[in-house]
Design a protein that fits this description.
Layout lengths: L8 H16 L6 H32 L11 H32 L2 E4 L6 H15 L23 E7 L8 E6 L8 E4 L6 E5 H7 L1 H4 L7 E11 L13 H12 L4 E7 L4 H10 L7 E5 L37 H7 L2 E5 L5 H12 L3 E8 L7 H11 L3 E6 L7 H13 L3 E3 L6 E2 L2 E9 L2 E9 L11 E8 L2 H15 L15 E3 L3 H17 L5 E6 L5 H13 L2 E6 L17 E5 L4 E2 L2 E5 L6 E5 L5 H5 L1 E7 L3 H15 L5 E3 L19 H17 L1
Parallel strand pairs: 1-5, 7-8, 10-11, 11-12, 13-24, 16-21, 18-19, 19-20
Antiparallel strand pairs: 2-3, 2-6, 4-5, 6-7, 9-16, 10-14, 14-15, 15-16, 17-24, 18-22, 20-25, 22-23, 23-24
Helix pairs in contact: 1-2, 1-3, 2-3, 10-11, 14-15, 17-18
Length: 691
């Protein structure tokens, strides 16, 4: 029926980022949030080019040696990508212009260097001399034999210095905008009822005559450019080099990665653009993307909120009812399982659990995996204090967590300096599982408790990422979690050792086969005219084998419902499906990050939370853990939340074959915004438990 069995992964990802852009264009979303969504869209696109487009370019260079699991030529995908990116970029510009008009209606003005009054000019000059001047050093690029490596996280002003009477030749220069050390947004002196903001870029534009004062020029222009580089880290096979050294070397090389995109102000003079393209060793076959005056829009995620009169509407997380007013989190967990649903429930309960373990005299050891941590991590603080209190602490830290490699190297050293046993994962396999095991001695016997989660131990993202944390002391689960840690601590162990785990699904050991078995069971039940259904909530669905198996399920009459935040390579419409696949994507205030699998299993539902998406990398090349939910009350809670999401008709988009992102039909129906509804549902449960 289709030329391709699945939708190209990268095209599906662009469809996801289009959903993010939809939020920016939604008039019902608060203005400050719409600006933030533009920033998220821009940041997403940057990472996409740094990783996916760079990978496709590598594949083209490799020619016939390149392999892609979707069997589509990389040059064809690149053509599709560029066409779609240009459409999205145009849409972005229209939304931004509309938002600028909305800002004006709210007496908020983003002005440029040509719109300053006398008072503001004086303010800007003082600000430049006191805060900015020492942070910028122009690059006179024509006099530099070897063109400087441009940082792909930075934006630059490409300047032309000229004389009105053309008495001396013009010159080109580059100025890096120092957004790491200075805010991109400067609030200007304004009338009482107005808020006026100027970008750091325009402050520097205004001060160009002062920056280049010792040259004999009288005309200055500046246009923004931005280079995106290949961000993949190559780990060489030099056995004499430690893995840590390889990561450090890879980070250095990343800064010099091959340019894969040049974004530029569309009004840039053609002579300057051609010069830059030549010096950067790009060609017109590379991604040369004209844009507006402003680049690195990711900075707008930190647009000053003080200029808005309307206060934030986001509701605060609350403590899980089982843990309210409890002196000990561990005592509760030793009695019953507790499921935290973030960001509705507070992440503080996890921090409390770790702090408690750090000071409890009966706790012998703590073992935990860390993938992405907060900049000022309270988890790390608890772990280092646990060592000071005589606990044996083991941390498995993944150094290859993309774009967190440098931070994780820092945490590794900090933990080791504190006396923590630090392991850096498994060769050629990322450790993406989110698990914790605490060993405690009570009445001359050892007990184990801890948690398994879908999300990271990051108190900052816990405020905006929807995730599940299962806090448990279940003996079978904790025994198998302990086996996972034993494997991770033994560099010579083979992962076949983990095949004895029967409760947890573990990749790359058993997860794929167990998922296939569970889907096949639903197919068998459907063929026997029994009720059969599958509900999946994932970040990404691209694994071709599992996609084909879900096709088989739909053809057999299994009711398949999926909630996918990002990539969905599955075609959801097919005349051969006995029951249509219901597939939606929810993009709203919180980022949907949790992974959940539900299989009806002839009335004995099997429900799992997991760290893994349905992607080849998760199932074949990462250590991941999926955990069964055994408590009936928690099972019902998880199912209730999933059904609320499946009923969303405000923020849910239909994932059709064209990935056109049409909203779910709400006409004539009660509007259901799932994230609001879930908060109310959990809040009501908490209130009822107190009563």
């Amino acid at each position: 029926m289709y030329k391709r069995k699945t939708i190209a992964r990268d095209i599906s990802w662009l469809s996801f980022n289009s959903r993010v852009l939809q939020e920016a264009g939604d008039d019902t979303v608060p203005l400050r949030e719409r600006i933030k969504f533009l920033g998220i869209f821009s940041n997403n696109l940057d990472e996409f080019f740094r990783v996916r487009v760079a990978t496709l370019k590598r594949m083209i260079e490799l020619g016939s040696k390149a392999k892609m699991h979707l069997e589509i030529k990389p040059d064809i995908i690149l053509e599709e990508i560029l066409a779609k990116v240009l459409v999205l970029q145009n849409h972005f510009e229209k939304i931004w212009n509309k938002i600028l008009l909305e800002l004006k209606k709210n007496s908020i003005f983003i002005i440029n260097q040509k719109q300053l009054n006398a008072e503001q000019k004086k303010f800007i000059l003082n600000y430049f001399n006191e805060e900015i001047r020492g942070n910028i050093v122009p690059l006179m690029i024509e006099s530099i034999e070897k063109f400087p490596v441009l940082n792909d996280k930075s934006i630059y002003l490409a300047c032309t210095l000229s004389k009105k009477d053309n008495s001396i030749p013009s010159k080109f220069a580059l100025i890096s905008i120092p957004t790491k050390s200075i805010s991109r947004f400067i609030i200007l002196p304004s009338n009482k009822n107005e808020k006026k903001i100027i970008l750091l870029d325009d402050v520097i534009r205004f001060c160009l005559p002062h920056i280049f004062s010792f040259f004999n020029y009288d005309t200055f222009t500046a246009h923004t450019i931005k280079v995106t580089r290949d961000a993949e880290i190559d780990i060489d096979n030099d056995v004499s080099t430690s893995f840590i050294q390889k990561i450090e070397k890879g980070l250095k090389n990343r800064k010099k990665g091959k340019p894969v995109r040049l974004v530029f102000d569309k009004d840039i003079p053609i002579t300057l653009l051609s010069y830059l393209v030549k010096r950067l060793e790009l060609t017109h076959k590379d991604n040369l993307i004209p844009g507006g005056k402003i680049h690195n829009f990711k900075d707008f995620m930190n647009f000053p909120t003080s200029v808005f009169q309307q206060k934030k509407t986001r509701k605060n997380p609350f403590t899980h009812p089982e843990l309210v007013n409890k002196k000990s989190v561990s005592k509760v967990i030793l009695e019953k399982d507790v499921m935290l649903h973030l960001p509705y429930h507070s992440f503080n309960s996890i921090i409390d659990l770790m702090r408690e373990a750090a000071i409890d005299p009966d706790v012998m050891s703590i073992k935990i995996t860390c993938y992405r941590l907060a900049t000022h991590s309270k988890i790390i603080n608890a772990l280092t204090n646990a060592v000071r209190n005589g606990k044996n602490v083991t941390v498995i830290i993944e150094l290859r967590a993309r774009f967190d490699e440098e931070a994780n190297l820092f945490w590794k050293k900090k933990l080791e300096d504190a006396g923590v046993n630090v392991f850096i994962g498994v060769p050629k396999m990322k450790v993406h599982a989110k698990i914790c095991l605490i060993k405690k001695k009570l009445e001359n016997k050892f007990i184990h408790y801890g948690f398994i989660s879908t999300g990271n131990l990051n108190e900052k993202t816990a405020l905006t990422y929807s995730d599940h944390f299962l806090l448990t002391s279940n003996k079978t689960i904790m025994l198998e979690v302990n086996k996972v840690f034993n494997y991770l601590e033994n560099s010579t162990a083979k992962y076949d050792f983990l095949k004895s785990c029967k409760s947890l699904m573990i990749s790359p050991v058993s997860m794929r086969n167990e998922i296939l078995t569970l889907i096949n069971r639903e197919i068998k039940h459907a063929s026997e005219k029994k009720k059969a259904f599958i509900i999946l909530k994932l970040n990404s669905l691209s694994d071709e084998e599992l996609v084909n198996k879900l096709y088989d399920a739909a053809k057999a009459g299994v009711e398949v419902k999926i909630i996918i935040r990002g990539i969905c390579c599955m075609y959801t419409e097919n005349k051969k499906f006995i029951l249509p696949i219901q597939a939606i994507s929810i993009v709203d205030e919180y980022l949907e990050h949790s992974r959940v699998m539900v299989f009806y299993n002839n009335g004995h539902e099997k429900i799992y939370i997991s760290s893994a998406d349905y992607m080849i990398r998760n199932l074949n090349h990462r250590l991941e853990v999926a955990c069964p939910i055994l408590d009936n009350e928690i099972k019902k809670e998880v199912l209730d939340i999933l059904h609320i999401q499946l009923a969303d008709n405000v923020k849910a988009r239909i994932l059709d074959n064209e990935q056109s992102n049409h909203y779910m039909e709400s006409k004539g129906k009660k509007k259901i915004r799932s994230q609001v509804k879930i908060y109310d549902y959990l809040r009501q449960k908490a209130n009822n438990s107190i009563l």
